[in-house]
Amino acid sequence: MMTIELSTFKGIAILLGLVLMLPIVGCQQTKLVFTDTQTPVISQFVPLKNAPKLTSTAKLADKDESKPGNTQPKVTPLTPNFTLHQFPASHSGLHYISLVLINSQRPFKDIDVLNTALYHRANWLSAQKPLSCIESLKVRAGMHSIALQMACPTEEIGSALSILAASWQDNAFDEIDIDTVRRQLKLNKHISAFTGSEIEKVWAREILGERHPYNLALNNQELQQALTQVDLIDIQGAILPGSKWHLLISGDDTTKSASLDKLALGLAKQLPQLPSTDVAAIGSSREDSERIGAASKKQLFIIDVPGAVQTQVRVGYRLPITSLQSDTKGMSISSAPLSCHTLASWLGRSFSGRLYYDLREKRGLTYGIYGRCFDNPQARTLKFYGSTQLQHTGAFVSGILDHLKLAMSEPVQATELDAIKTFEKSKHLLANSSTVAIQASYIKRLTLAQNNEDVLRQREAIAALSALELQQMARAIFDSPPTILLRGDADLITEDLKSKLPDWQIKMITP
């Protein structure tokens, strides 16, 4: 009996000891083994053996690319501040309608608040109006434009235009729940922090400067917390001076141009009158203007997120702004929109861009790395962006910088240059693939004050681009240190960054 009790006691003691050891084992963490840097690798674009021969891209473009006359609208100024743009018929037979307010001279202040309110108004309308196309009502807002869009059959065009006009009246927000709008704005802030999209707000602050007009126009927390219907009407009224109305509408075989003119003129009379004189644009400080061009310091900014399992990475440049006519004129090459867009495609296009091929396909440092040119009336930026695991952070950032250097030092091969040109042609085809896409790119052109000749000139410049010219673009922009912003666990990644980027000063910043 005593033997059984002693055995039981020993068993309990051993079990208790194991239980007490569990917290110790659980607190142990696997030490991160950081990835080494490697020499950048680029694709050779070797043709596949026995692959069928295809028509050259030049001939294909001549046959299949949408000609300007096939997609461009008939433009009719109806009043000094209202222009009708009549597009060809859509494949669906519906009329795609966009009522757009544009001001290229200054950004729309508090457009983020107005966009949210109009979104809730659209939801309210979808439950109130018997119109069959009411659920197609969408809001598309940018820093210099805001569009209300619908897709309706011919018999509902008049009703649709009245709904769009009503969205700009003094009583437009009387029926929406303002508390819901406030909660949505507050929720958006929390969602941004949770998902990591807050990095874009910090990126805009660092790349443009805290006092840049775009940063001053957004994220007014005091307004958002105490928002009223009166505030919304004030916001609408404040963005009207200096702006212009544009009505984009696709026709069909049965709709006569004269009837559309009449409907559009009726809409123009319903809309608020636009003051003929603009208010002063929001200015930026001298410090912000000096950010344009070369950055003299190698600075890497980190948003510390303890416990983060990945590192978000942003690398890029703020470029000075010139028009399309300056694309290939000597010292202005760094400020040309062609340079910005082409370099983004060369290094940052998905699947076949240099960064994606090397850092994703060959080395497995990321699920995706992309490049994009953000071209706006008051700011042009080139950004490469992606995410990586903690242990890859230093190698990932170093890999991006190595590719910037490689683009400057070695000219591109002919096959790779052809791939870039094909990609740019494909973007043009996609921009003309549907009425929705055509109108979206057209609104962008209106915002940038571009015309058909500007677009054609840029396409011709891409088609004639040489390897030397592409290398000159890279040297003009990449010769200066980029702005680098990371969002991740600073305690875990800082030493790795210091070892792989010893020349860079690391700074901690808050969202």
From TrEMBL:
One GO molecular-function entry: metal ion binding
The Peptidase M16 C-terminal domain, residue ranges: 296-422
Gene3D superfamilies in the cross-refs: Metalloenzyme, LuxS/M16 peptidase-like
Pfam family, one: Peptidase_M16_C
InterPro entries: Metalloenz_LuxS/M16, Peptidase_M16_C
Top-level taxonomic group: Bacteria
Protein name, per record: Peptidase M16 domain protein
Protein species of origin: Shewanella sediminis (strain HAW-EB3)
